[in-house]
Structure formats: C-alpha cells, structure tokens
Amino acid sequence: MTVAEFMAECLMHPKFGYYATRDPLGAKGDFITAPEISQMFGELIGLSLAQAWTDQGRPARFTLAEAGPGRGTLMADMLRAAAHVPEFLKAADIVLIEASPILRAIQKDALATYSVGWITTVQDLAEQPVFFVANEFFDALPIRQFQREGEHWRERQIGLSEGALQFGLGPAQPQPALKHRIDDTKDGDVVEDCPSAAPILDEIGGRIARHGGAGLIIDYGDWRSLGDTLQAVRSHKPEDPLANPGRSDLTAHVDFEALAQAAPCRYTKLTPQGVFLERLGITSRAQGLTNNLTGTLLDHLVQAHRRLTHPEEMGQVFKVLGLYPQGHLPPPGLDA
Ligand code: SAH
Question: Is the pTM of this model over 0.90?
C-alpha cells in the first residue's frame, strides 16, 4: 500500500486507528501540543481572529471553525479571551471538524457551556464568512512519498516481507503533479504530497474569498518540503513508523506552499510561531499572568512561554500561515 493508505489506516481505522481509539495528548499521552502547554496560545489566537473580524466590519453571522481540535483546549481558550469582544461571540456559529468519536466526546465536555456543532468534512461548512484555525491538523493528514529516478518518480510503498512491514518502491512513472519539483530535486530525492490538503484549502479559502473571514494554520513544516519527513511518536519518543501501527502517532511535515497555492484567497508570509506570538503580545500576557503566581506555578509559566516562542523549542520549527480576503488586512500577527 502507499504511505498515504498506511497513514490513513493507522490513524483513522474505526477499530484500530490511533485517533479513533484514544486521546493521545498530554503528559500521560504520546505528545503535547501548543494549546496544552499554555492557555496563552489559544487566548492570543482568539483575539487575533476577533480583531480580524472587527477589521472586516464585524460580519453579522459567521462560522468560527477549528479543524482537528484535539481536547478542545484551543477553542475553549479562544472563546474565553474573545469574551472581551462579546459581539464576536454572539455572531459566531462554533463548528468543530473532527473525525475521532473519542475526541469529539472530550471536546463536548471542554466546551459544555457553548453551543457547538460538529462536522467531519469542510465541505459541510456553511456558505458564510469563516474564521478558521487549525493547529497540528495538517501534519496528521496522509501523505504520499515519491523518490526521483531520472524524470520519473517511484512511489514509496509499504508491504509485508517475511512477516514484517517493510518499505519498498513502486515502478518509475511520470507524475504530472510533481512537474514543478524537477528543478529543485536530484536523482534519489524523496518528495511528499498530501492529496487531501488542497481540497480542504479550496473549500476554506473559497469561503474566505467569497464571504470574508480569515484562517490561521499552525504546524511544523516549511515552504516546500524536501525529503522523507514521515515520523512516529509514542510516549513522547520518536520510533520507527512501521513498529507499532495504530499505536503510535504518525505525522509528516506540512508543505505550506502547497496549502497556500490551493487557497483561492490571499495568503500571508509564512511566519515562525515565536515571531507570531511575540507580535500578538505573548510576553505582556505572560507578565500579566505572573503577577498572581509564585513557586512552581511561576516556573511553569516561564517554561511555557519559552517552549512556545524560543527558536530552539517550538518558536522556529512551527510556522503560521494566514488566509484572508482580497482588499482586507491580514490577520494580526502576520504580514501580507
Ligand atoms: N489541534 C489539537 C490536536 C492536534 S492532534 C491540539 O493542538 O492539541 C490532531 C487532531 O486532528 C485530532 O483531533 C485528530 O482526531 C484530528 N484529525 C486527524 N485527522 C483528521 C481528519 N482526517 N479529519 C478530521 N479530524 C482529523
């Protein structure tokens, strides 16, 4: 099977899939994400979107959507901070795009005081302005991998050999979708393609272009990916992606160029997460929170600020891409 088929089975198989069967987040889980590190992350994102809504003349009705909301922490922090702009909350239809039944139940608890709707695909978003966020969602979408051979490409595949899963290569074939990669690759290089990402950007970017709104896509990756970035993590440690199918988290770096080019609206400069959060005022928010704290709570806050922003932690590896409509300002924290 292709790497994409393998990822899809491992992550979302209804009985054995990783996300379908567990809550993977937090200290006791397999990995930790920015919203789980500190409330500051979601607060600043909520305020950035509320400001973008204000900049666009406060549309009377809009969708506030999150893809892959995990435990619902990011949305809860966004909504709490956005309560400072009560008209924003009043105008919002809150919609979560989530495939995992277990995580949906956890999100329901986390957001019990709000009226929330769930959908499984972005096609079901209403035709109205959409203010959208996705943190560590696109890295979980299945990717295909291709190894260059002359002007052709061999797809990396996974099969069973002598009782064990092994990587192999399919036949060399032309890949019209990878024509733009002939100039920046050489023989033997691996490039990745995430086939489900472009249709998602087309749906969300289309709504932003037609009706207004904004998008914040946060993930690790870069502008155009090169090389094999498939990785597995279990209990906070990297492992062989073939070692524990369905029991380890599988991700790949996000190719932000592919996302940006699939969106039929304007997009911002790709910006490191640390820069984005500093521009939104994370340091003054942290200082505000420290006023009430001492001892280990204070240490935790200082650590959280560092983890989210420092270039050697999540500040540089994680990037933010913004989406916005023609003729409007980019969402705060990002440049056109
Ligand atoms: N955004 C959260 C969780 C990241 S984990 C955080 O930052 O903590 C990835 C999330 O995406 C999970 O909620 C997972 O169930 C969801 N997900 C993965 N693939 C999906 C798909 N194809 N459709 C909808 N949700 C998906």
Answer: yes
